[in-house]
Amino acid sequence: MTNNKVPFGPTYEEMLNPDTINPQIRQQAIQAAEQNELDPINLFNISWKDKEGQVRKVVLPKELTGVDANIVVMLGTYFPSGSHKVGPAYSTLIEGCVDGEILPGEHTILGPSTGNFGIGVSYICNLMGYDAIVIMPDNMSKERYERIQRYGAKLDLTPGTESDVILTLQRTYELKKDPKNRPLAQFELMPNYRFHRHVTGNSAIEAVKGIGNGRVACFTSAPGSAGTIAAGDQIKAVFPEAKIVALEPYECSTLANGGLGQHRIEGIGDKMCTLIHNVLTTDFVTLVKDDECVRGLQVVQERFKELTGLFGVSGLCNILGAIKMAKYLKLGPDDNVVTIATDGFDRYNSVLEELAERELEVTDNVLDRWYRDIFMEADTRHVYDFRGQDGKEQLFKQKEHDWLPFGYAQEYLDAMKSMEFWDSEYEKYKEYDEKIKEKRGK
Predict the structure, then answer these.
(1) What is the percent of the chain with per-residue pLDDT over 90, rounded to a whole number?
(2) Coiled-coil stretches, from where to where (predicted)?
(3) Total number of domains in the chain
(4) Residue 376 carries which DSSP code?
């Protein structure tokens, strides 16, 4: 490291295109991915691409989806720590480093989360030499807590489930009053947006090359922080006809109609319109029932062995939303719907164990029924069109309701009503790439 204490890590462009990394560093990172998960060189494995430079993805079999369109799922489970959330965790931390606002040995990192971002924060802080506290609800899967603690972060649990994230934000605001604490505030800081617009968005564009007509007709993403859905901004820049769809739990339909409630899809449906959600590019909000995601995961694990291990519950939500939209938009065999599997099955064993306890017996007959009801007979109900001005105003009002209480100015929120705001924020990735290259340790 150099005297300015900035850790050695990749630029945004290197995360999008690992082939631009110094070949020696790239080779060391590839070896570390297989041999030592906690080697800091793994920061250079933060990418959607494999060692051959191809986007990690799967095109779902038509016998699973029941639609003519190609449903392309980008796979987050192959990122370091097992989820793509490690990307925005790193991006937020490295921007703070090069700006001189976060220094190793001086600051403790706060990670408000419902799971995967907290795991990412814990992992990144382990590699970059920071103490970390992950603030999250106390009713998440045990696998999440275990992994966070294994990477060395402390847990600070708040009441409730994944839909009570507002309590984690309030707790974070309490803890950040201590000047030694620095929050990686995924719901409100723009590095999350920049990572997903540049790295995830451009990777999604590459993911459809050679599939169907090579274009993206629709992108579906269930917002937690609403970082991932920023990929839609870049997709629209290249394919203006693409429809961007925010998915919500049917049981917690905050964006769709102001609905609140508890649900079982960990990591999404957080009873808010997050600050970094660019609602200008959100065309539809579609609701997915939580139990269909959990049961659907069981079906995939049992009946589609080639897909075993690749998805978690929120991944199934994204897939079911993609199926619904393929039907709603009447997409054909040349059309591509892109979606994301944030993580893999490795953190959901307990969720399926709980399902088995609720259902008592999951026989072949039950699996047949779930497969038919959830996938083959997926319907187009609960699709809300937000392309009109009234829809945008509804989402703007929700954002004001959620963020004015946290001290954000009305003028700042009003600025978000222009695409110029988002394009300007996005373009800052170039400045940060130059800062990272200039200041990163050797």
Answers:
(1) 77
(2) none
(3) 3
(4) I
